[in-house]
């Protein structure tokens, strides 16, 4: 079978609809109790019925996530530049970063609550903490992998370290940076939802927790779908940004 | 004729009793560094075309780095144009086996890169842009790349990228051109085309050229003098004056006299590898 361009274009929709159809069929066929796994029809029903709280809380989660994400971008960019530019900073900071990244962020939430109380601040900070790591690593990698020969060409001309960073290092690190944003934004959602479900009275995470407590299982799933949609939209936005800013890297396949 | 008068007349690049260890003085004391070259003596005259051949890892690239002030020797002296080398030598242009063009810049902007770095062009570039663009375009035309300035590197073939890299090495009008296996990655026909580009450039400008290569035919065709290096730690084993009259045509590579020199050099390298 040959895949036509039209088929490829519609494949994402076909597969998504197909997933829901199978899900619905399985629920009906095996008569699965809705409080265990509600069929999509019930989930969509819940979405219609509770659209108002769903939209409100989605927006709260989105804003929280974006603030944490933007903090991560700023901080990650700075730290990544510092690590990529200086061997000393690299040697000193990298082990700390690895250790820090290994800590499950759920474990940090109680500490954040202790410091900042229940609410949006721990959620923003969790989103930040979980998403800055890939940005730092990618920016530093982009800077650290400058071809030594090219560096020699410029050094022989009397280029300073700063010159080399400006003319080569930073432009070279940009595709890595924008590539990392896709990963970082999805992680930021994970962070804010974790924190919301443990230590907040707003946001999708909190809504799902409450719905669960009240045994409104279809609403729990509706929350999941809202999160998935937000995640896809933000991922697509970052992918678009990446394409817009660093198209050369995708066309050339780097370093050839 | 610009070249072939030998080094004694007007020495331009001079290394005397040079030894070099990577890793700095500390590595030398601790004995952990690699002794890359040892007791290296080489003198290259102004306007001369010199080629350096030798076994892999013998210190040819190290020689280039020492002569351009990218590395400093632990022993001996290095001087270029009569000045001891204590910092990067800005009158040199360099090209390597990989063209290393920046993929986000057009070919023309890639050529401009050195001008954005090196004085006095750096200061003048902004107000004299047209003059420099003109210079870059003339340079591109001289290597057969006229009209390709607005193409990105990934839109050029490997040979064309190498030509552009050569132009980048020449844009600030250096007096010394350092080529480290510049044609190693190209097919035989493209390589011979580029030999002629370099030959004509040398003929036209009288620039001093140091070429590191693994291709003995390339060395004999292009150079006035060929230096054969020993295995690491590298020093000069043999110095061979080519003595074929210029201008040289590609046809001479098929003559008996040419083949003879290639064979002789081959013998020296086999010796050096032992
Ligand atoms: N940056 C470096 N740090 C440490 N050792 C190095 C470095 N560069 C080269 N060396 C060592 O110095 C020696 C000479 O290296 P060099 O690159 O000059 O060889 P070469 O003659 O150019 O080899 P090739 O023909 O393979 O290019 C080698 O043994 C190498 O291991
Ligand atoms: Mg080498």
From TrEMBL, chain A:
One of its GO terms (biological process) is transmembrane transport. The keyword rRNA-binding does not apply. One of its GO terms (cellular component) is plasma membrane. It is found in: Cell membrane. Keywords: Cell membrane, Membrane, Transmembrane, Transmembrane helix, Transport. The keyword Iron-sulfur does not apply. It comes from the Bacteria. This is NitT/TauT family transport system permease protein. It comes from Prosthecomicrobium pneumaticum.
Automatic annotation (TrEMBL), chain B:
Pfam families: ABC_tran. The keyword DNA repair does not apply. Residues 13-256 form the ABC transporter domain. The keyword Nucleotide-binding applies. It comes from the Bacteria. Transmembrane segments: none annotated. Keywords: ATP-binding, Nucleotide-binding, Transport. GO terms for molecular function: ATP binding; ATP hydrolysis activity. Belongs to the ABC transporter superfamily. PANTHER family: ALIPHATIC SULFONATES IMPORT ATP-BINDING PROTEIN SSUB (PTHR42788:SF13), TAURINE IMPORT ATP-BINDING PROTEIN-RELATED (PTHR42788). This is NitT/TauT family transport system ATP-binding protein. It comes from Prosthecomicrobium pneumaticum. The lineage of its organism: Bacteria, Pseudomonadati, Pseudomonadota, Alphaproteobacteria, Hyphomicrobiales.
């Amino acid at each position: 079978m040959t895949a036509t361009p039209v088929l490829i274009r519609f494949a994402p929709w076909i597969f998504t609809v197909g997933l829901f159809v199978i899900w619905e069929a399985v629920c009906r066929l095996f008569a699965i109790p809705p409080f265990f796994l509600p069929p999509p029809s019930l989930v969509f029903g819940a979405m219609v019925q509770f659209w108002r709280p769903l939209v409100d809380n989605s927006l709260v989660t989105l804003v929280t996530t974006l603030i944490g994400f933007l903090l991560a971008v700023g901080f990650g960019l700075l730290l990544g530049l510092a690590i990529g530019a200086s061997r000393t900073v690299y040697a000193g900071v990298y082990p700390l970063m690895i250790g820090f990244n290994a800590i499950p962020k759920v474990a940090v939430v109680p500490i954040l609550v202790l410091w900042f109380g229940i609410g949006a601040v721990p959620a923003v900070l969790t989103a930040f903490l979980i998403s800055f790591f890939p940005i730092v690593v990618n920016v530093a990698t982009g800077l650290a992998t400058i071809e030594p020969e090219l560096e020699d060409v410029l050094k022989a001309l009397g280029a300073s370290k700063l010159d080399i960073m400006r003319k080569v290092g930073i432009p070279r690190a940009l595709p890595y940076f924008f590539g990392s944003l896709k990963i970082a934004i999805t992680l930021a959602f994970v962070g804010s939802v974790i924190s919301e479900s443990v230590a907040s009275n707003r946001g999708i995470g909190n809504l799902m927790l409450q719905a669960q407590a009240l045994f409104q299982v279809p609403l729990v799933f509706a929350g999941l779908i809202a999160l998935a949609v937000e995640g896809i939209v933000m991922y697509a936005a970052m992918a678009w940004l990446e394409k817009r800013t660093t198209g050369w890297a995708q066309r050339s396949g780097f370093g050839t | 004729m610009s070249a072939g008068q030998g080094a004694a007349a007007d020495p331009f690049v001079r290394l005397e009793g040079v030894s070099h260890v990577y890793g700095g003085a500390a590595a030398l004391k601790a004995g952990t560094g690699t002794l890359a070259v040892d007791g290296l003596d080489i003198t290259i005259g102004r306007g001369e075309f010199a080629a350096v051949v030798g076994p892999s890892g013998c210190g040819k690239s190290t020689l280039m780095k020492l002569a351009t002030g990218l590395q400093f020797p632990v022993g001996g002296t290095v001087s270029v144009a009569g000045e001891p080398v204590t910092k990067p030598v800005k009158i040199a242009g360099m090209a390597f086996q990989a063209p290393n063009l920046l993929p986000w810049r057009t070919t023309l902007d890639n050529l401009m890169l050195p001008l954005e770095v090196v004085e006095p062009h750096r200061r003048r570039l902004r107000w004299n842009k047209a003059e420099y663009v003109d210079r870059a375009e003339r340079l591109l035309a001289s290597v057969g790349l006229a009209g390709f300035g607005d193409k990105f590197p990934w839109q050029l073939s490997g040979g064309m990228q190498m030509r552009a890299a050569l132009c980048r090495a020449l844009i600030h009008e250096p007096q010394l051109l350092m080529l480290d296996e510049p044609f190693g990655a190209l097919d035989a026909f493209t390589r011979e085309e580029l030999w002629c580009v370099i030959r004509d450039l040398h003929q036209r400008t009288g620039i001093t050229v140091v070429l590191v290569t693994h291709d003995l035919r390339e060395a004999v065709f292009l150079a006035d003098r060929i230096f054969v290096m020993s295995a690491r730690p590298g020093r000069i084993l043999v110095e061979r004056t080519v003595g074929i009259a210029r201008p040289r045509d590609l046809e001479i590579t098929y003559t008996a006299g040419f083949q003879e020199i290639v064979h002789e050099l081959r013998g020296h390298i086999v010796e050096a590898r032992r």
